Automatic annotation (TrEMBL):
Residues 41-180, 206-343 form the SIS domain. This is Glutamine--fructose-6-phosphate aminotransferase [isomerizing]. Transmembrane segments: none annotated. GO terms for cellular component: cytosol. GO terms for molecular function: carbohydrate derivative binding; glutamine-fructose-6-phosphate transaminase (isomerizing) activity. GO terms for biological process: fructose 6-phosphate metabolic process; protein N-linked glycosylation; UDP-N-acetylglucosamine metabolic process. It catalyses: D-fructose 6-phosphate + L-glutamine = D-glucosamine 6-phosphate + L-glutamate. The lineage of its organism: Bacteria, Bacillati, Bacillota, Bacilli, Lactobacillales. It is found in: Cytoplasm. It comes from the Bacteria. Its EC number is 2.6.1.16. Keywords: Aminotransferase, Cytoplasm, Glutamine amidotransferase, Repeat, Transferase.
Length: 353
């Protein structure tokens, strides 16, 4: 039931703060120790020399963020693969691979195909899914819940942030990390709430930047490039504005030729190491007439930025940076008079290959 909300998507965007709290409550005890992950999962992953994350669409984008936690916090090399590609062109595997399937529905046929293949090869598997009694959770060796609650809107929002959080918790449980993740997730929840409370700001941005546009771009570097992919998917799938998300350094290798007077270019700027380079790229597209809309984090912000995000641990910034993009996609779609929850040609659960 969407209650007072006009669309499920808006309700599900708002639920993200609660989901972050729910996950912290489920996976940590009062002392801040991990309790929600069985020893068998950790023991099996610790024997692996490489993780392979398999997913599609938005879940694939969540995997691109999760990779960073497994590499930075758990020190395990991690690859992220599109299920439909991996299924028919399996790359050369490491000696002791461990497979993680990420899925909202747990029914995605492309991911199921890979799981079948991998099981036949005898490698250990874990599914991280929102629907717990699903094919992918039942058929993998291990399963961890995403606990986002039912997601009805075709455009995935809360499942994305929740999948990122579960991956962060799992990676954290495998390594020795300075951060107090439970406390940091409490902060994430507070800040998600603060961002979703500013809907009018994102409605204004969407209406002024996107209402009459045919194309748009999202750029970023590092984790912001991963979020740019998801931000672009959100915008294009419901508003039908052709949107590309990509690593900002690639602009000069081709895409910059698409910039015209007024082309909206959204820049996500939350990663300190590459902030200077990204500022340069924003200036380059602005010089060619782009309408640049920069969403930055507090310590990297400049006065002209369209929106300044509150700050949490830099590796967790995707959880905040994606929220404006979700809301901008929502309001751009609303402004164009389209059905936000049910975009044409798409199904919520893709059970065919
Ligand atoms: C986009 C979206 C899709 C799904 C994809 C995978 O908003 O919802 O891209 O993420 O079809 O679905 P799941 O996560 O159910 O495996």
């Amino acid at each position: 039931d969407k209650g007072a909300y006009p669309y499920y998507m808006l309700k599900e965007i708002d639920e993200q703060a609660v989901v972050a709290r729910t996950l912290a409550g489920h996976y940590f005890n009062d002392e801040g120790e991990i309790v929600g992950i069985g020893c068998a999962i950790g023991d099996t992953i610790k024997q692996a020399d490489r993780l392979y994350i398999i997913a599609a669409g938005t879940s694939y984008h969540a995997g691109l963020v999760g990779k960073r936690y497994f590499e930075n916090w758990a020190n395990i090399p991690t690859e992220v693969h599109i299920a439909s590609e991996f299924a028919y062109d399996q790359p050369l595997l490491s000696e002791h691979p461990f497979f993680i399937f990420l899925s909202q529905s747990g029914e995605t046929a492309d991911s199921r195909e890979v799981l079948d293949n991998i099981k036949r090869q005898g490698f250990p598997t874990l599914t991280i899914a929102n629907v717990m009694n699903s094919t992918l959770t039942r058929e993998a060796d291990f399963a961890l819940p995403v606990l986002a609650g039912p997601e009805i809107a075709v455009a995935s929002t809360k499942a994305y942030t929740a999948q990122i959080i579960v991956q962060a918790i799992l990676a954290y449980s495998l390594g020795e990390v300075e951060l107090d993740l439970k406390q940091e997730l409490a902060k994430v929840a507070v800040e998600i709430q603060a961002i979703t409370d500013e809907k009018a700001t994102f409605q204004a941005i969407a209406e002024s930047a996107l209402k009459d546009q045919h194309s748009a771009f999202y750029i970023g570097r590092g984790l912001d490039a991963a979020v740019a992919l998801e931000a672009a998917l959100k915008l294009k799938e419901i508003s039908y504005i052709q949107t590309e998300g990509f690593a900002a350094g690639e602009l000069k290798h081709g895409t910059i030729s698409l910039i015209e007077e007024g082309t909206p270019v959204f820049a996500l700027l939350t990663q300190a190491k590459t902030a200077g380079l990204l500022r340069g790229e924003v200036a380059q597209v602005a010089a060619r007439g782009a309408n640049t809309i920069t969403i930055s984090s507090k310590s990297l912000a400049r006065p002209d930025d369209a929106y300044v995000l509150p700050e949490v641990d830099e590796l967790l910034m995707p959880l905040l940076a994606v929220i404006p993009a979700q809301l901008i996609a929502y309001y751009a779609t609303l402004a164009r008079g389209l059905d936000v929850d049910r975009p044409r040609n798409l199904a919520k659960s893709v059970t065919v290959q």
